[in-house]
Design brief:
- It contains 20 helices and no strands.
- By secondary structure, it is mainly α.
- Helix 6 packs antiparallel against helix 8, helix 12 packs across helix 16 and helix 14 packs antiparallel against helix 16.
- Keywords: Cell membrane, Ion transport, Membrane, Sodium, Sodium transport, Transmembrane, Transmembrane helix, Transport.
């Protein structure tokens, strides 16, 4: 019942967020606070060793599907500065701060705290920054950073936890483990990605394909961890490989798979925040007399996390700016400041905090500090980022982005015409058929432009765009009437529900193609 309740609350919060114009990660964070403060809720204990395998694989896979290898090639400088160097600097700064402040904490335990609060959350950053018309370069950097910094932080975290429990630690062991775990995870991910693509190509049913993609990230993570490789990198590599080898004809698979993973991402995030709220309730009760003292330490750690990211991104903007790369990010101090304010901590920090073993030194205090970092870095930017974007004047480069969209639309248009000529040469198509298909191709090109302002084009193209926009509106109304009729037919005596569902699915797919 607890899990069902958390899922229901998460879904309702998404609806609330749409109405009040707040990103759902911010509201889900507040849900975790509410769960921690509301008395009388049942206790749900998940073994710490199951936290990472349960929560990280699906969210990493969902995020990695929205990026590509080519993006990493273009933005490798930004990713290196953020995913590797910044994570390690943050770990060191937070570890030193915690070691000086928290009584009885070992240095290894302080390093574990630094590792679990170091990696920003790509899902939260995208959900908060995406709708604000920030330059796509910046959002892409946030996505890429979040995928790789988890891998770096997790290796440091696992080594620190082992050292805190056993009492022994060797920096050389850490370097050797990372030198092995990263290449081994990439190799394993590529092998599993090839096997997954081979299997998916032989499954025609979209539902079964979506089910297989849910199994793949868990298999990659668990197998990599069994081989002492990076489970995070293995999952990311599998997702990137599958996305890179996507089948152009798999229309149903893309539609159903995209919706499926959006639901998985949403529910897993909500459950994770609810679980830490339940755990924090017990921690708050156990530390009732020390909350003010612990809160002061947590506030200082939050300041360290924010300041380190801000200073480093200011330096990074200068270093990256010297490269001359037109796709570089950040390009200036304004973009650097904006990226620093988008360093939301989310599910990775949650999962690592929940995974701290019960016998860990100062575990309850570390949990409170970790959750404080999540709240400060999630809620504060989530509420103030729109104002900061407006204040700094960092807006989407609409001309460049529109040009990129239109260039791709023209490529699609020309590719269709080339194929039409090839088919005409082989099959000697009727002239009227060719003319009709050419007209449809022009309509397709206008449809791909239809979300743009007609004034940006020639008068003929602008008129075609207006016609397509009107066509969409009319066709939407017509299809809505058709769907209503089929839904009504489902309630009539003697109606075949399966036949109704088949026809309704076809109408739904046709409606989806209009948007």
């Amino acid at each position: 019942m607890v899990i069902i309740g958390l899922m229901l609350a998460t879904v309702l919060l998404v609806g609330v967020g749409e109405r009040v114009r707040l990103p759902y990660p911010v509201l889900v964070t507040l849900l975790g606070i509410a769960v921690a403060l509301v008395p009388g809720l049942p206790v749900l204990v998940v073994p710490p060793e199951l936290i990472l395998p349960l929560f990280l694989p699906p969210l990493l896979y969902a995020t990695a599907q929205r990026t590509s290898w080519s993006m990493f090639k273009v933005r490798w400088r930004s990713i290196l500065l953020l995913a590797l160097v910044l994570v390690l600097i943050t770990v060191a700064a937070v570890a030193f701060t915690a070691w000086m402040l928290v009584p009885g904490i070992t240095f290894a335990a302080a390093v574990a705290l630094g590792a679990l609060v170091a990696p920003p959350d790509p899902v939260a950053a995208e959900a908060v920054a995406g709708p604000l018309r920030m330059p796509r370069r910046l959002v892409a950097v946030l996505q890429s950073e979040g995928l790789f910094n988890d891998a770096v932080a997790l290796v440091v975290y696992q080594l620190a936890v082992a050292a805190a429990i056993t009492g022994s630690y060797s920096p050389w062991t850490g370097l050797l483990r990372f030198a092995y775990s990263a290449p081994a995870a990439v190799a394993l991910g590529l092998a599993l990605g090839w096997l997954a693509r081979w299997t998916l190509a032989r499954i025609g049913e979209p539902t079964a394909r979506s089910g297989l993609t849910l199994v793949i990230p868990f298999a990659a993570y668990l197998l990599a961890e069994e081989l002492h490789a990076s489970g995070v990198l293995a999952v990311v590599t599998v997702a990137l490989y599958i996305g890179h080898t996507v089948e152009e004809s798999d229309v149903h698979g893309r539609l159903s798979g995209g919706a499926f993973w959006e639901v998985v991402e949403l529910l897993v995030t909500g459950v994770a925040f609810g679980l830490i709220g339940l755990e924090l309730r017990e921690v708050l009760a156990a530390n009732d007399g020390r909350l003010l003292e612990i809160g002061g330490r947590a506030a200082l750690v939050c300041v360290v996390v924010i300041v380190v990211r801000t200073v480093w991104l200011g330096m990074g903007a200068w270093l990256i700016g010297r490269s001359g790369d037109p796709e570089r990010a950040p390009r200036n101090w304004r973009e650097g400041l904006l990226l620093s304010w988008c360093g939301m901590r989310g599910l990775a920090t949650l999962a690592l905090a929940l995974a701290i073993p019960p016998e860990f030194p100062a575990r309850s205090e570390l949990l409170l500090i970790a959750f404080a970092v999540i709240v400060v870095t999630m809620v504060l930017p989530g509420l103030t980022l729109p104002a900061l974007v407006k204040l700094l004047g960092v807006q989407a480069e609409s001309d460049a982005e529109q040009a990129a969209d239109e260039a791709l639309a023209k490529r699609a248009y020309k590719a269709g015409l080339r194929r039409l000529k090839e088919l005409d040469a082989v099959r000697d198509l009727p002239e009227d058929m060719i003319e009709k298909i050419q007209a449809k191709q022009k309509g397709l090109l206008a449809a791909l432009y239809a979300d743009r302002e007609p004034e940006n084009h020639g008068e003929e193209q602008a008129q075609r765009i207006r016609t397509v926009q009107m066509f969409r509106e009319i066709q939407t109304e017509v299809l809505a009437a058709a769907r209503r009729e089929i839904v009504t037919a489902r309630t009539e005596p003697g109606a075949d529900p399966q036949a109704v569902d088949r026809v309704l699915r076809r109408l739904d797919l046709r409606s989806a193609q209009l948007h």
